[in-house]
Each structure stands twice: as structure tokens, then as C-alpha cells.
Write a structure and sequence with these properties.
2 helices, globular, single chain, Thiol Ester Dehydrase, Chain A, 15% helix, mainly beta, six-stranded antiparallel sheet, 148 residues
């Protein structure tokens, strides 16, 4: 299943400048997701993250992997998009190569297991089929207070 930006915004509460997924390339609901992030020099963090030699911040690569995992787990949520999903931890983070403006970041997140409201995932990020980052992470869902 392929999702465009409007469909992504139905599944994630993130918005510009913090929505870091541009398109979903493959989706196996409740299992895994492969997404695309186009890295452009116009993004606001490049003004301060080494403006003379812009590098996409590693923490944002990990955030993009988490957002990709959130898309994969959307159907696991009882409220389909009304729950809030948060980072609950991350381990084994490795950065292999800098990501720079002009790169297309391919994000792959897979849900390994789920215990109640905690999801355990693994993620990898690629540029030109080369691994640039990887991490294991946990996401936690809590009911939204929206509309109360």
C-alpha cells in the first residue's frame, strides 16, 4: 500500500516542520512500513546545523524512523489516530554516513513485538541503498485527551 502526504497526515499528528515522512512506499499494516523523506536545504534546521556544511541531524533520522513505525502501527491503535504515540526509548543507535541536502532518505521500520500499549521496533535508514543509520526503539501509545 502506498500513502501520499494527505493520508500520512491522517495517521500522524505531526505537522510542518516536524512531519518527517513525505510518502509511504510500502505498508504492511501492523507489521512494517517503508517511507521516503526528501532532504532539502530549505528545511529550517539547516540554518543552524552546520550552515557551511549542512548535515541532516541524526536525531531527526531517528525521529523519522519512529514516525514511519507509527504509520506501521496505526491500525494497532484502538482509536485509529486519536491515541498519542510517543518515544519510550531507543537502543543500539548507529550512524554510518552523513545525510545531506539532495539525499532521499528511505526509512524502514518494523514492529517486532507489542506488549499492551508499548511497541518494540527496529528501524534502518538508507540513501542510495547504503545504510546510513539504524536503531531499535520503543513507542508508547496513550489515549488522547482531544475533545475533552
Amino acid at each position: 500500500m502506498v500513502l501520499d502526504i494527505l493520508q500520512i497526515k491522517e495517521r500522524l499528528k505531526h505537522r510542518f516542520p516536524f512531519l518527517l515522512v513525505d510518502r509511504v512506499l510500502e505498508l504492511e499494516e501492523g507489521v512494517r512500513c517503508t517511507a521516503l523523506k526528501n532532504v532539502t536545504v530549505n528545511e529550517p534546521f539547516f540554518q543552524g546545523h552546520f550552515p557551511e556544511s549542512p548535515i541532516f541531524p541524526g536525531v531527526l533520522i531517528i525521529e523519522a524512523l519512529a514516525q514511519t513505525g507509527g504509520i506501521a502501527g496505526y491500525t494497532l491503535s484502538k482509536s485509529k489516530g486519536k491515541d498519542l504515540t510517543f518515544f519510550a526509548g531507543f537502543d543500539k543507535v548507529k550512524f554510518k554516513k552523513p545525510v545531506v541536502p539532495g539525499d532521499q532518505l528511505i526509512l524502514k521500520s518494523e514492529i517486532i513485538k507489542r506488549k499492551m500499549n508499548i511497541w518494540f521496533l527496529t528501524g534502518e535508514a538508507f540513501v542510495d541503498d547504503k545504510l546510513v543509520a539504524r536503531a531499535d526503539f520503543k513507542l508508547a501509545t496513550i489515549p488522547s485527551t482531544e475533545g475533552e
